[in-house]
């Protein structure tokens, strides 16, 4: 390579020069680079501590801290004007036969060093996911200059939380506790990801006291430390619980002196390190203040913060405005903010999600106008009500991009801290958010797939990158349909639209793909593959299918099917598989390195608290009758025949437009086998089988020969016979004129349910200030539709609003129910509201309150609170009559479902073709799906599968 800088060639490695007076963290990272070169090439680069450059060397240093670099600047051999004085910026350039790595500050230099490490083949996850190094005997850097501007988000980091039993038991086994030996690996990971911030584990540990070297090493590495949202003034909650008698009650009003002394000790201990100090005060532990009303607590909080800032002034001997501080607006604290509570303008406001991945507030306009520092605390792990989300990764990259883009665009860009639970197995979302935080504009919605492929290629190589990206995208999407901790046997329909069977099949397909790929992965990467791909896919699929098999078992047992026992046995087999997968992770993976890391109980949740042990859902056993006895069940019904003499079995209606097939199950209630025959009363009925033997069950598919079927609505009978037993099944078919149009459209000839994926529109009409855009792979299906830009002004003037148009065929005049499935956007701008509008044809659109179905976990919208708040508006009532929405059903709400259904009735004035129009009113809404006329007779979780007419899509 002409003019390229040689790092390693012909068995010889370059030297690395660094000034011994530079930051300790820089010198340590230089040693890492030397060792990384050895890992890749087999030859270590010698490190020389000097102020004089050697020829053909890597010269590393920080502006103002390195005489080595300052000399190059003074001699005008390098121009650092693009990075000097900037936050965490660096440049890498070839100069006079040397490779010069210059940082604007300590972390800037460190990031430049690790940038080289990653590019030569050392993944940031080499330790935390055992990613093998990419071997190469020759390493070169292309001649030129590369400048890395400052990150768009100033502080970027993670919160290790909910760390018992898994992370806690792991680190005690491997390192002896939550000590600097363990945390040094966390610090290094963060820096290799170009992150800079940490809230340490705190359930059973105290970062600064468990190992006094913890804060020392953090500062040397270059990590900014804080304490979580409910741990003020650099004091861990465990520090208080250990000295509760000494400090006194956690009550500022009754024990101001004791509490303030406790605060002061924390700051005195940590004042010489780089911190972002949490201020404020909640109750004892992660809870609200236990005494008083909101108004009384707000008065106390004012006094707390005033006292804390006086302590900051005393300890640092500086104005508090010079010392970085953060106030977390978490859970009940949001109520205080909404009622007008505020903190001094220099304090960073940390807004939060709803604990399950939906931002509660965008950056408020009043704060943006005064250029207030703001940030986001976000969960990809949660331990608490209404449901926990701990064990496995259930967050998709498209969802993270959508939410963090909303945060970034609305001014929440000074701190991003993400609750990552045990860190493992949340590697992929951690990687994405830390990289995205550096420059969100670099990964628009249509580049998310590219990121995932690049991530896979960086770890496993180019050959299987797209396959792996597909696998990890699918398992996390399927988990988002129904997270493991909120599974139940009543979610997916066993009898309607083959929904449960379709979900089982999708999980089996992605599992099979992951298993098939495993043998093609290089042996040295298989431990990594197990951690990042195979285990999360296979274990998630196992849990999902356990509940689906239990759903089938429970229904089949009620029907008396002997095959119910097969479903139960399959569930038990899967339960054993889950145990084996976990044991391998804990005991064998990476030679036992991750012992105890996968200890979370994840089967058997009935509330949000972790069960004591994994348990199977309720399984029923059927005692077979002594002789074979026929039973019949039909699609769309829980009932079985014979035995329901009052109700005749009937299949859902067939129509010529949708050309459906429905099933009849013929099953055995006893031992042995029986012979059956199926007779149809009309020649236009098609049957997949007309006779056969049944040991356990046989599925007969019924369809219609539409060329033979008569015009209009017609009925027929299918009879299932076994010996002297006959079960009649009604068949109803509708054959009327299909719309004469070449346009693609949605609809039903019967006026029944049909569904529309949001991205399958006929027209997408831009507005004056915004447009609807496709958000690929977001939501339950292929894509969602969102607004660009998300900062667009709201509009109630529909002619200038962006709109989506969907062509529908509606056969009947009257009311048409439209259910719009939206992602669970919170009341992000409560003064304004959260609205969308829907219209049909040229009728005036109806503005809808899109908070319908909002889950008020934090009791913000109670009558008592609404009386006193300045900005909140009452929530609209949730529709309880539409089964699709799930109101009142077990484990069903927008948090459990990751979807909110908004229903509206439209007036259809004439049968035929119509245009349904969805208008933006407020820009934060994301549309996932539309279900028209949801059918309570055949309810399901997803709604009826979509059928697009006159198109190949």
Properties at a glance:
about 20% strand, 39 strands, alpha/beta, 8-stranded parallel sheet, 22 helices, about 950 residues
Present the secondary structure layout.
Blueprint (H helix, E strand, L loop, with lengths): L4 E5 L2 E2 L1 E4 L5 H18 L4 E4 L8 E5 L4 H8 L15 E6 L2 E6 L2 H15 L18 E3 L3 E4 L6 E6 L5 H10 L4 H13 L4 E3 L7 H4 L2 H9 L2 E2 L11 H6 L1 H4 L8 H15 L6 E3 L14 H23 L8 E4 L4 H6 L9 E5 L12 H5 L4 E6 L17 H13 L5 E7 L5 H12 L9 H13 L4 H17 L17 H20 L7 H34 L4 H25 L41 E5 L14 E2 L3 E2 L6 E7 L5 E7 L4 E3 L3 E4 L2 E8 L7 E11 L2 E11 L10 E2 L6 E4 L5 E3 L5 E6 L6 E6 L14 E8 L3 E9 L12 E6 L5 E4 L13 H6 L25 H4 L2 E9 L3 E9 L6 E6 L21
Parallel strand pairs: 3-4, 3-5, 5-7, 10-11, 10-17, 11-12, 13-14, 14-15, 15-16, 16-17, 19-27, 20-27, 28-33
Antiparallel strand pairs: 1-2, 1-8, 6-7, 6-9, 18-21, 21-25, 22-24, 22-26, 23-25, 26-27, 29-39, 30-33, 31-32, 33-38, 34-37, 34-39, 35-36, 35-38
Helix pairs in contact: 1-3, 5-7, 10-11, 14-15, 16-17, 17-18, 17-19, 18-19, 19-20
Binned strand content: 15-25%
Number of helices: 22
Reported for the largest beta sheet, the result is: 8 strands, parallel
- Helix amount, in percent? 25-40%
Question: What structural class is derived from the secondary structure elements?
Answer: alpha/beta
Instruction: Say how many strands there are.
Output: 39
Q: How does the overall form come out from the CA principal axes? A: globular
Alpha-carbon Rg, integer? 31 Å
Provide the low-confidence segments as ranges: none
The largest sheet has its strands arranged as 12-11-10-17-16-15-14-13
């Amino acid at each position: 390579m002409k003019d390229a800088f040689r790092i390693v060639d012909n068995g010889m490695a370059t030297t690395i020069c660094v000034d011994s007076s530079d930051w300790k963290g820089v010198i340590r990272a230089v040693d890492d680079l030397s060792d990384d070169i050895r890992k890749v090439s087999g030859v270590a680069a010698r490190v020389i501590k000097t102020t004089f450059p050697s020829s053909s060397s890597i010269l590393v240093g920080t502006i103002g801290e390195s005489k080595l670099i300052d000399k190059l600047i003074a001699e005008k051999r390098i121009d650092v004007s693009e990075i000097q004085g900037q936050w965490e910026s660096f440049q890498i350039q070839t100069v006079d036969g040397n490779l010069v790595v210059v940082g604007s500050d300590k972390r800037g230099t460190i990031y430049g060093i690790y940038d080289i490490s990653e590019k030569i083949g050392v993944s940031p996850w080499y330790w935390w996911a055992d990613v093998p190094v990419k071997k190469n005997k020759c390493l070169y850097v292309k001649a030129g200059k590369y400048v890395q501007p400052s990150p768009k988000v100033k502080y970027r980091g993670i919160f290790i939380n909910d760390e018992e039993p898994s992370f806690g038991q792991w680190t005690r086994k491997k390192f002896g506790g939550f000590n600097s030996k363990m945390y040094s690996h966390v610090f290094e990971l963060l820096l290799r990801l170009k992150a800079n911030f940490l809230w340490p584990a705190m359930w059973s540990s105290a970062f600064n006291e468990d190992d006094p070297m913890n804060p020392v090493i953090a500062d040397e590495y270059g990590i900014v430390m804080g304490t979580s949202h409910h741990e003020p003034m650099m004091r861990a909650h465990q520090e208080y619980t250990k000295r509760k008698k000494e400090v006194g009650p956690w009550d500022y009003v009754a024990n101001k002196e004791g509490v303030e002394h406790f605060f002061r000790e924390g700051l005195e201990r940590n004042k010489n390190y780089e911190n972002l100090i949490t201020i404020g005060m909640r109750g004892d532990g992660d809870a609200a203040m236990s005494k008083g009303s909101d108004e009384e607590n707000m008065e106390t909080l004012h006094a707390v913060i005033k006292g804390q800032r006086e302590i900051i002034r005393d300890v640092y001997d500086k104005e508090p405005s010079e010392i970085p501080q953060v106030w977390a607006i978490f859970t009940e604290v949001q109520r205080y903010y909404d009622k007008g509570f505020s903190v001094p303008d220099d304090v960073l406001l940390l807004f939060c999600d709803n604990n399950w991945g939906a931002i509660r507030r965008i950056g408020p306009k009043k704060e943006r106008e005064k250029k207030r520092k703001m940030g986001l605390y976000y969960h990809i792990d949660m331990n608490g009500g209404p449901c926990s989300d701990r064990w496995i990764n259930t967050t998709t990259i498209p969802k993270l991009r959508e939410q963090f883009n909303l945060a970034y665009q609305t001014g929440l860009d000074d701190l991003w801290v993400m609750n990552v639970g045990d860190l493992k197995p949340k590697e992929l979302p951690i990687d994405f958010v830390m990289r995205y935080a550096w420059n969100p504009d670099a990964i628009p919605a249509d580049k998310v797939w590219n990121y995932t492929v690049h991530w896979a290629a960086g770890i496993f190589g180019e050959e299987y990158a797209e396959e792996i990206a597909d696998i990890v995208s699918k398992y996390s999407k399927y988990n988002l349909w129904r997270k493991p901790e909120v599974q139940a046997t009543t979610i997916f329909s066993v009898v309607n639209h083959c929904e449960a069977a379709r979900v089982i099949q999708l999980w089996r397909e992605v599992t099979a793909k992951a298993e098939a790929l495993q043998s093609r992965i290089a042996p040295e990467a298989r431990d990594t593959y197990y951690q990042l791909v195979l285990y999360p896919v296979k274990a998630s699929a196992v849990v999902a299918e356990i509940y689906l098999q239990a759903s089938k078992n429970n229904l089949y047992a009620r029907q008396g099917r002997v095959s119910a026992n097969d479903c139960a046995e399959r569930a038990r087999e899967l339960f054993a598989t889950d145990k084996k997968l976990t044991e391998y992770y804990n005991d064998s993976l990476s030679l036992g390195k991750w012992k105890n890391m996968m200890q979370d109980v994840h089967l058997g949740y009935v509330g949000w608290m972790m069960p004591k042990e994994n348990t199977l859902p309720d399984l029923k056993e059927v005692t077979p009758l002594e002789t074979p006895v026929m039973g019949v069940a039909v699609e769309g019904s829980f009932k079985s025949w014979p035995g329901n003499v009052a109700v005749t079995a009937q299949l859902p209606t067939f129509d010529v437009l949708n050309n459906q097939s429905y099933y009849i199950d013929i099953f055995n209630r006893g031992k042995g086998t029986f012979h059956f025959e199926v007779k149809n009363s009309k020649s236009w009925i098609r049957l997949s089988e007309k006779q056969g033997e049944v040991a356990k069950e046989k599925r007969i598919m019924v369809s219609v020969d539409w060329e033979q079927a008569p015009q209009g609505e017609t009925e027929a009978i299918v009879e299932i016979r076994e010996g002297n037993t006959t079960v009649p099944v009604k068949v109803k078919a509708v054959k009327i004129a299909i719309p004469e149009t070449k346009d693609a459209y949605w609809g039903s000839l019967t006026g029944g349910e049909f569904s529309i994926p949001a991205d399958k529109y006929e027209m997408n009409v831009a507005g004056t200030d915004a447009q609807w855009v496709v958000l690929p792979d977001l939501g339950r299906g292929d894509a969602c539709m969102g607004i660009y830009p998300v900062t667009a002004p709201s509009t109630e003037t529909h002619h200038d609003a962006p709109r989506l148009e969907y062509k529908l065929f509606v056969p009947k005049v009257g009311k048409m129910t439209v259910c719009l499935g939206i992602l669970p956007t919170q009341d992000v701008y409560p003064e304004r509201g959260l609205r969308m509008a829907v219209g049909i044809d040229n009728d005036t659109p109806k503005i809808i309150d899109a908070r319908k179905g909002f889950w008020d976990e934090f009791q913000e919208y109670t009558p008592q609170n609404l009386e006193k708040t300045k900005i909140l508006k009452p929530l609209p009532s949730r529709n309880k009559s539409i089964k699709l929405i799930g109101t009142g059903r077990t484990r069903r709400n927008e948090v459990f479902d990751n979807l909110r259904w908004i229903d509206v009735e439209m007036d259809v004035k004439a049968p035929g073709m119509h245009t349904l129009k969805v208008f933006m009113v407020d820009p934060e809404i994301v549309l996932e799906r539309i279900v028209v006329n949801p059918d309570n007779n055949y309810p399901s979780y997803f709604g009826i599968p979509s059928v697009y007419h006159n198109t190949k899509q």
